[in-house]
Amino acid sequence: MSPTKKEVTFKDAFEELEKIAEKFEGEEVDLEKGLKDFERGLELASICKKKLGALEARVKEIQEKFEV
Fold first, then answer.
1. Rounded distance, CA 10 to CA 44, Å?
2. What average pLDDT does the segment 19-45 reach?
3. How far is Cα 32 from Cα 40, in angstroms, rounded to an integer?
4. How confident is the prediction for the chain on average, in pLDDT?
5. Residues 65, 59: Cα–Cα separation, whole Å
6. What does the pLDDT average to over 11-15?
7. Above 70 in pLDDT, residue 3?
8. Under a CB-based contact definition with an 8 Å cutoff, are residues 40 and 20 in contact?
9. In whole angstroms, what is the distance from residue 68 CA to residue 60 CA?
10. Between vectors from CA 19 to CA 24 and to CA 4, what angle results, nearest 5°?
11. What does the pLDDT read at residue 31?
């Protein structure tokens, strides 16, 4: 990611991913536009997965720290 781009939050990535999914569910999609949306959806899913993984690791760290 370039330093000039703002990092996408989990919330923003998930909301954008939901909008893309709704497009595919609700209407006929132009092939080229659909492919771009599909690619963006995969990027967003990857961002969400990485952020969730980091959060899970942090929760585990905190639990171990307090022996929960």
1. 9
2. 91
3. 13
4. 90
5. 10
6. 97
7. no
8. yes
9. 9
10. 125
11. 87
Angle at alpha carbon of residue 68, lines to 57 and 53, rounded to 5°: 10
Q: DSSP string covering the chain, please? A: --TTSPPPPHHHHHHHHHHHHHHHHHS---HHHHHHHHHHHHHHHHHHHHHHHHHHHHHHHHHHHTT-
- Residue 59: is its pLDDT beyond 80? yes
Is the model's pLDDT at 61 over the cut of 80? Answer: yes
List the structure tokens of 22. Answer: 């709704």
Q: Give the model's pLDDT for residue 68.
A: 64
CA distance 30 to 35: 8
The residues, any chain, with a CB within 8 Å of residue 49's CB and separated by 6 or more, are: none
Q: What is the average pLDDT across 12-24?
A: 95
